[in-house]
């Protein structure tokens, strides 16, 4: 009798906890993420259109750097995103290692290529900006150097994931590496910053004392929000594709193919 | 795994493991010498490539010696868990009931004694080759003494992650070199400050901090990495 009672009244669960448990199911996550992706892309495109228009046509040229400072509207949001991307990856990695949720493992791994791309974009935009401002493509500036080390950290995570054949084992190894990197990242960042002041006397600053006029600041903020939506859209798309690849022979994928979603 | 009770005490296992690994290392003495010879060869390439000018060599000496130490450490790291992984001893360690963290620490200690300590002991010779100012030799030795254990500790995480790969060595260098950046910066800064007659004890303090931090955290991460690799 007691057995029957346990079946008829399942333990009451908090709606949020229930939702999180549901998200752990590949089929549910797939459709859930699919619903968000178009919105993320749309918001990204609208914000980028506004931000880029402002950056290229509304904001006046800088009195010192002329037109070249407009690279900032790509460089700085990409730089912020590259660091935030690593933090997001490490948080996902922590969750994946502690609770062993496969979706989160996939999310953590999918952060790496997007983050690495943003880091590379930061470095390229930074050196293109450096050419007119510093007269050279590359300076061992503290920020450029720590971005370079960040790129190496991303490449390590990607390399380790791709080197191990079994996907779940590869994901867990990469998650642990991402966590180790996240512990080291502040130490690396500050040691590089400090190394730079040690060897250079006065470091060259792109934004002279960060005294930026508010008319120049607004497009920057819009662009940095746009970039976050790009990251989200790209991350979810990658996670969905990876999930499909891994579950190619499972029932829920077959259902999706049959329904033509 | 959790059901088995360890036989023997924790410290007994630790000492036995260190003794066994040292014995194994000294049975293969030529292999032991490879990283040391590698270090000497790399250092000797710098005067050949840059020119024998004593002033220039003296300026780059701290950086060159430290970079060579990093390279030699990474070369030797691959052997840290390799043979134990291949013959299944590592799995026996896991089911022995002793914490894997402690076993990893014992392996790291042996690795440092075998690969790190020779670098420290050789550094006076390297300093002479690189024309390091004589007054800074003590600081150089101190940075190596404090820094090379950190290299072994951080490196053990990378080895744990790549151990199940056939060609893990190449990947290992990509994984660990970015993590070695702070140690390289602080250690060379200490020697350079000493060469310029500036105070350098704060740098040694930072190295001690790095050693303590990695000593407390790295063995846990290495054990977690090994468990993933063995799964």
**Helix segment tally of chain A:** 9
How many independent structural domains of chain B? 1
Strand content of chain B: under 5%
Structural class of chain B: mainly alpha
The major β-sheet of chain A equals: none
Q: What gap, in angstroms, lies between the N and C termini of chain B?
A: 12 Å
Number of separate structural domains of chain A: 1
Question: In DSSP terms, counting alpha (H) and pi (I) runs of 4 or more, how many helices of chain B?
Answer: 9
Output mean pLDDT of chain A.
86
Uncertain residue segments of chain B:
none
Overall number of strands of chain A = 0
- Give the SSE order of chain B as H and E letters: HHHHHHHHH
Q: Termini separation of chain A (Å)?
A: 44 Å
Summarize the main sheet of chain B: none
For the CA atoms, what is the radius of gyration of chain A? 22 Å
What does this entry show, briefly?
Chain A is built from nine helices and no strands. Chain A is an all-alpha fold and 261 residues long. In chain A, helix 3 runs antiparallel to helix 8 (214-246) and helix 4 (72-99) runs antiparallel to helix 5 (102-134).
Architecture overview:
The complex is a heterodimer of chains A (261) and B (231). Chain A contains nine helices and no strands. Chain A has 261 residues and is an all-alpha fold. Chain A has one domain. The mean pLDDT of chain A is 86. Chain B has 231 residues and is mostly helical. Chain B contains nine helices and no strands. In chain B, helix 7 (137-162) runs antiparallel to helix 8, helix 7 (137-162) runs parallel beside helix 9 (201-230) and helix 8 (168-195) packs antiparallel against helix 9 (201-230).
């Amino acid at each position: 009798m007691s057995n029957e009672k346990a079946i008829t009244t399942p333990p009451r669960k908090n709606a949020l906890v229930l939702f999180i448990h549901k998200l752990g199911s590949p089929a549910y996550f797939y459709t859930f993420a699919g619903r968000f992706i178009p919105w993320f892309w749309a918001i990204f495109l609208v914000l980028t259109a506004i931000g880029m228009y402002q950056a290229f046509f509304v904001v006046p040229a800088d009195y010192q750097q002329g037109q070249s400072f407009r690279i900032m509207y790509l460089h700085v949001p990409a730089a912020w995103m590259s660091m935030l991307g690593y933090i997001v990856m490490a948080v996902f990695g922590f969750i994946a290692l502690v609770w062993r949720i496969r979706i989160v493992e996939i999310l953590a791994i999918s952060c790496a290529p997007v983050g690495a791309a943003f880091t590379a974009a930061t470095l390229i935009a930074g050196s293109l900006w450096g050419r007119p401002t510093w007269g050279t493509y590359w300076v061992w500036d503290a920020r450029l150097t720590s971005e370079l080390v960040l790129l190496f950290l991303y490449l390590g995570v990607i390399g380790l994931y791709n080197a191990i054949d079994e996907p779940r084992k590869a994901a867990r190894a990469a998650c642990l590496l991402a966590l180790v990197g996240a512990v080291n990242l502040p130490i690396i960042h500050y040691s590089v910053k400090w190394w730079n002041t040690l060897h250079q006397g006065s470091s060259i600053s792109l934004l002279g004392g960060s005294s930026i006029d508010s008319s120049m600041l607004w497009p920057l903020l819009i662009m940095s929000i746009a970039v976050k939506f790009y990251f989200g859209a790209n991350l979810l798309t990658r996670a969905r594709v990876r999930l499909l690849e891994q579950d190619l022979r499972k029932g829920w994928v077959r259902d999706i193919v049959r329904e033509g979603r | 795994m959790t059901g088995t009770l360890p036989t023997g005490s924790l410290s007994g296992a630790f000492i036995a493991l260190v003794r066994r690994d040292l014995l194994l290392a000294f049975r293969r003495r030529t292999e032991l010498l490879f990283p040391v010879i590698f270090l000497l060869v790399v250092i000797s390439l710098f005067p050949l490539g840059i020119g024998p000018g004593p002033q220039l060599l003296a300026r780059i000496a701290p950086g060159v010696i430290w970079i060579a130490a990093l390279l030699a450490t990474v070369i030797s790291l691959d052997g840290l868990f390799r043979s134990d992984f291949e013959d299944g001893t590592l799995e026996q360690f896991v089911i022995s009931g002793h914490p894997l963290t402690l076993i990893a620490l014992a392996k790291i200690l042996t690795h440092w004694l075998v690969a790190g300590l020779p670098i420290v002991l050789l550094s006076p010779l390297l300093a002479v080759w690189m024309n390091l100012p004589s007054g800074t030799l003590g600081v150089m030795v101190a940075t190596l003494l404090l820094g090379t254990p950190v290299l072994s500790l951080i490196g053990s995480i990378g080895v744990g992650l790549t151990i199940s790969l056939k060609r893990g060595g190449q990947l290992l260098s990509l994984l660990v070199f970015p993590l070695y950046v702070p140690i390289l910066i602080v250690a060379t800064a200490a020697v350079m400050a000493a060469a310029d007659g500036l105070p350098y004890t704060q740098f040694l303090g930072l190295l001690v901090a790095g050693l303590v931090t990695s000593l407390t955290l790295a063995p846990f991460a290495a054990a977690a990495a090994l468990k993933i690799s063995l799964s």
